[in-house]
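Continuing from yesterday's entry. The apo prediction looked reasonable, so today I'm repeating it with NAP included to see how the binding region is handled. Same sequence as before; SMILES copied from the compound registry.
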Amino acid sequence: MLLVGAGALSLLAGGGAALAWWSRSRRGAPIAEPGRPTVRPPGVPLSAFGGRSTAEEVTDGLDLTGRTIVVTGATSGLGLETMRALALRGAHVIGTGRSLESARAACGSVRGKTTPLPLELTDFDSIVELSRSLRATGSPLDALICNAGVMGLRSLEKVRGLERQFVTNHLGHYLLTRRVLDLILAAPQGRVVTVSSYVMNWSSPAGIEWDNLSGERDYHPNRAYGQSKLANALFSLELARRLRGTAATSNSLEPGYVDTGLFKHYPVSLKGFRGLLAEKAPVTQGAATSCYVATAPILAGHSGYHFAMCNPVVPIARACSETEARRLWDVSEALVTSHLSA
Ligand SMILES: NC(=O)c1ccc[n+]([C@@H]2O[C@H](COP(=O)([O-])OP(=O)(O)OC[C@H]3O[C@@H](n4cnc5c(N)ncnc54)[C@H](OP(=O)(O)O)[C@@H]3O)[C@@H](O)[C@H]2O)c1
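Holo prediction written out below.
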């Protein structure tokens, strides 16, 4: 008999529909979201790939020799597989871990040219240090894949007075991107790829809770995670606007429901229950969209889009608000200002 505790049921609230969608969507096209049909944005090409394509398949035939790509959170799950596939195709992948040791272990586990570097996204000094190390390589950055993330912290944890998932998943990547944007602009066609999530719809229906970035009011792990993933999409959208007129692009994506360590903060009972609702994709498939958006030649010049299963999709309405995207940029800038040019 399956035992599901009250805490687990609470965590599941709002997530059931999304999990069911993940499961359905993995069974084949078309990509459909609960309650509304798939909407394709105009002006960006479709690919031949889908929910079952793998990172190796979407990069098959690409020679990435000479490209430098940063993957944050490369020590496990999607980041490790993304690094593996891109290094396999010849890219020099800079894989970050929260410690140099964990980054070294991850880089040492894949074939190809990799460089381990430490990055703790809740420590702004660590972000500054990483940006200095990247600059010291003397190479432009062909892609920055903002992948690292944490999900579902059971109780409120704060960093610099802000809710930890917001800082880790969004703000840290915001600061990192700002600090290395010139290196991305220096590449022939630099790309910023931000890993968001379909469950950005767990955020408040009103969008970013501007008056509650500390998370103190009515903290809920799912809502906080959803907000951080909504922030990922809005950040990517505003960055794309700011990159207009340059060769660089910014796009966000959702990798699907993938078998990684991301769910470690959820109770065991929920892990079992979730398994009944949705089939998890292996990381080989989960990393496909990141690799596709970071490298597909046909996406050159296409910016400001959101992808799922290697194809562009229109995300939920609150992830499409240019006003909210600009506001997030400004608020984020104010929050990291001490480390922007330090
Ligand atoms: N798996 C899914 O179904 C799914 C669905 C939608 C979106 N995503 C997104 O995919 C991304 C990758 O997640 P995953 O599923 O591959 O999970 P994962 O296996 O747990 O990997 C997360 C990575 O982020 C790193 N990380 C966590 N906190 C960090 C911090 N404070 N500073 C620097 N790095 C940190 C982790 O390092 P440590 O191992 O040292 O903690 C790890 O390398 C996340 O952004 C997640 O939100 C995943």
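Comparison notes:
- The mean pLDDT is 89.
- Residues 10-337 form a domain with the Rossmann fold fold (CATH 3.40.50.720).
Will overlay with the apo model tomorrow.
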